Amino acid sequence: MEREQLHEIRNAIARGRRFELVFAVCGVIALMIGVLTFLTLFVDMAIAGIPRINAEFFTSFPSRHAERAGILSAWVGSVLVMVVTATVAIPLGVASGLYLEEYAAKHWVNDLIEINITNLAGVPSIVYGLLALGLFVYGLGFGQSILAAGLTLALLILPVVILATREAIRAIPREMRESAYALGASKWQMVRDHIVPYSMPGILTGVIIGLARAIGETAPIITIGALTFIAFLPEAPVTAIPPYLNFEWLWAPFTVLPIQMFNWTSRPEAAFQANAAAAGFVLVALTLAMNGLAIYVRYRLRRNLKW
User: Fold this and answer.
1) Which of 257, 265, 278, 261 is nearest to 51 (CA)?
2) Residues 12, 111: one domain?
3) How much is the pTM?
4) Residue 181 contacts by C-beta under 8 Å, 6 or more apart in sequence?
């Protein structure tokens, strides 16, 4: 009897290992399909676009002549839109995550807010574009400006930043909070001196990944009326005249890298297709650099922290 039970146990373990092996093989195949597809598209884009990338490509405005066209207005517009997005989304997202995780009481209103934030993280980006069109462009009168675009993308990544902040805070052991209270720290002192510093690697990772998503978004930017062809730059944010800051650029019309790519890919000439591939290579490289920065920042901060 014992031998039969032992035999059944061994068979069950063997079946479990076979299922585990099959699952692992399926997972590797699925991963390789995704990775190889991305590499194929990226290499094809790089082969077509890298010969077009030079200093003139970054310092020239778009043109009807493909050999003279560049991405100056597009990359400057992308940078300025990201400045507005980061300025709005990071403080609001981090503060909201801290409040919901550390201060909010257990109440049905807060539960409803949490559910909506989780759902908003999965809403298609075009919905944010339609919301921004009615609220920022027409409702508040911001028009087709850098400010409207930055606020739109800030709304887009705000749920991501909030969720990343909450997950980073939840990863901190409860004993750390209790130790701070035992030493006489107040709620704010505990959050400021312990929760925020130790959760910062996870928070920054979520923030940078959110910004990397925002810089490649096209649908909400098109919805609010980004220009497909623009041959001038907004006014400089910093001037040589006191007070040395200029905010007129917030109201300037704009374009961004995804929109410039869309404009070039809609043209039949092969030279414009090469320009679009070059702009796409720059955008992908910038996105990968931001994700790499997130990994590096997380590694450095975790290395410097002592539990």
Assistant:
1) 278
2) no
3) 0.84
4) 190
